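Box 4.2: Ligand-aware structure prediction
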Amino acid sequence: METAPCPECNYEISLPNPRAGQRISCPNCGADLEVITGHPLELDWVYTEPDDDWETLDDDWDEDWDDDRPGGAGEDKDEDWEDL
Ligand SMILES: [Zn+2]
């Protein structure tokens, strides 16, 4: 069990098995936190780098786009149509 103070409210947060990169929410103030190091436990606010933002947007865009293009959800329809 590792403990570290919340950077937002100083609430002592306990994690049984913290891992670097783990996302948690402060049980006291609800702040979105990220485990910087597990041993010793160090917490910081979750921050999103511009690259991460871009990748997230790109993923969403790909998913929407896949729905409309052949090879995505439409592929099965095309095959059925060819069988007929
Ligand atoms: Zn807090």
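In the box above, the bound molecule is zinc ion. The radius of gyration is 21 Å.
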